[in-house]
Design a protein that fits this description.
Blueprint lengths: L4 E7 L1 E2 L14 E2 L1 H11 L6 E6 L4 H13 L3 E5 L12 H9 L4 E3 L12 H19 L5 E3 L7 H9 L4 E3 L6 E2 L4 E2 L2 E2 L6 H9 L4 H16 L1
Amino acid sequence: MSDSKVLNICFHGVGEPQREMEPGEDVYWVTADRFEAILDEVSSWPVPVRLSFDDGNASDVEIGLPGLVERGLTAEFFLLAGRLDTPGSIDSAGVAKLRAAGMPVGSHGMAHRSWRGLTAAETVAEFDTARTVLAEAAGAPVDTAACPLGRYDRRVITELRRRGYTRVYTSDRRPARADSWLQPRYSVRHHDTPESLRAEVLAPAPLPARARALAVGAVKRWR
């Protein structure tokens, strides 16, 4: 396995929400100006960066996509199948715009719930039905996923591998190896600035912090 490092940066909502937010979701919404400033910042970093968006908010197409295209950047959009064509979320025309601009589409599941502890029927809905719905909307296969709420365990990983997902993204705040199947990400929060994000992501973390992050990831994978 390659040791080359990649930094995964994830956005959620940009600008003003157009739907009722879930408890705590406001932590991950940023202003349009802050979003564009962070885009400029991460595109200047001396290491590879992968960008992604979770939740399938309407702002992904209205603000996120133009910002990416203007800078010649690409991001992967992890959509919620259960929110397609609902107020405040991406509609079918928006999915087509993403694909026409060369943006990949992945699955964030059906109902934005934790994938830990799912029943058999819920597992099918989150991992199979959602994938089919999104593939039909995108007009292309969907073979990547992002874990809702950052929650996963050994069973989740096993089920996703068994279904042939080629890459799965988490919310573990640490660098990733470029070719790893499981990809930790840094989610952008409302209080992040270009300067604070650079300091957190690019500066080498102290050894105890790195060890703690690795230990947390190991616990999630094996519990």
